[in-house]
Specification:
This protein is 42% helix and 19% strand. The chain has 249 residues and is α+β, with helices and mostly antiparallel strands. The chain has 2 domains: 5-125, Rossmann fold; 163-223. Strands 1-2-3-10-4-5 form a 6-stranded mixed beta sheet. It has a 4-stranded antiparallel beta sheet with strand order 7-8-6-9, covered by helices on one side. The longest helix has 16 residues, at 101-116.
């Protein structure tokens, strides 16, 4: 509200792409510093610091300088510092960039828990799998312009591309299947991609065609478009390191 700017600022937390942790301070000291900046009393600051150290699994490292923390630990401490004042709206800018898979999933768990607790999270990420896992609504940006918005399911339904992949053990079987079913053959992988796989009915129809043609693939898998496919279809280019590519929560 324009008439209560201090209250608005107090309700907002920001965790930037680059850690704001002071490496010379311990994890506990970093959190206590943020508590003082939030004008908490000494007892309240200690209580909140203890809560956050436990929440982010940093108790054992609380007395160690933040400079000794791993990348995942620094990101957890950075987010914990954002939460000292218990904001109800949090902006997270690429919170898992550079993290290993386990640390990334730990951060996903924390974000889910925040949302479950009633916190609103606006998250930007270059990892579209991350947006798929976490976001209730997604906005796809291309060079600073929103080109699509909706749930993950809604965005995926906007583009074609569902197919069934059939794998064979012999090139002759692959050729026979391609003649009978059409689709796109991959001779090197001995695989055939047949359009469809959009639902049970289309899959059942394909199985009937396989049976009628006496075709028995070694393996069958159903592939549906992902958010990467959505991005490519909407923008016409791929940019894994392009900071214009964002998915927002």
């Amino acid at each position: 509200m324009a008439t209560e700017p201090d209250a608005v600022r107090a309700a907002i937390g920001v965790t930037g792409q680059y850690s704001a942790v002071d490496g010379l301070l311990t994890g506990r000291e970093n959190l206590m510093l943020m508590a003082k900046l939030n004008r908490m009393g000494r007892a309240g600051a200690r209580r909140r610091t203890t809560e956050l150290l436990e929440l982010f699994d940093l108790v054992d490292a609380a007395a160690k300088p933040a400079s000794t923390y791993s990348g995942g630990m620094r990101r957890r401490l950075d987010l914990a510092m954002t939460l000292v004042g218990e904001p109800r709206l949090i902006f997270l800018d690429e919170p898992t960039t550079g993290l290993d898979p386990r640390s990334r999933r730990d951060m996903w768990r924390i974000i889910r828990e925040l949302v479950a607790g009633g916190v609103t999270v606006l998250l930007t990420t270059q990892y579209l799998e991350e947006a798929d896992q976490l976001a209730d609504r997604i906005a796809v940006l291309d060079h600073g312009t929103i080109v699509a918005e909706g749930t993950a399911a809604e965005l995926k339904r906007r583009i074609p591309g569902g197919h069934v992949r059939l794998r064979f053990t012999e090139a002759r079987a692959l050729e026979s299947a391609a003649q009978a079913l059409g689709g796109e053959a991959d001779p090197d992988a001995l695989a055939l991609d047949v359009p469809g796989g959009d639902g049970i009915a289309s899959l059942r129809a394909l199985l009937d065609r396989l049976d009628s043609a006496s075709i028995t693939p070694e393996e069958l898998s159903v592939h549906t478009p992902g958010l990467d496919d959505v991005f490519l279809a909407l923008t016409g280019h791929r940019g894994a390191n392009d900071h214009a590519r964002k998915a927002n929560r």
